[in-house]
Amino acid sequence: MPGRWAVCRLDPQAAVPDWAFSGDFFSITRTTDELSIVCSEAGVPEGVLCERAWAGLKVEGPLDFSLTGVLASLTQPLAEAGISLFVLSTYNTDYLLVKARDLDRAVAVLAEAEHTVRSEY
To answer: Is the pTM of this model over 0.90?
Structure first.
């Protein structure tokens, strides 16, 4: 996934800000504990609590709901390599965000684990 992403935390009752919708990929999740927003880091104003500089990997989908172990087969080698990640799932597929500085290493680790990785960054 081209671009750089931010993972932001706002108060649980906060209104969803307009900047959350910047770009063609974003995720908004509200729980009783927080409003979590993943979006293009370029749109996030200074002063917002967030982790910046994430890069994205998209799992080829759509994935059937009966499939098991897909995320485990991706996250285990990354965990063993000490690569932190943030995972998002949609109806059709999964997305892995890794720190941009770890992207090349994450791609190499996944390829070594016999996953096919297409580079578009």
So the answer is: no
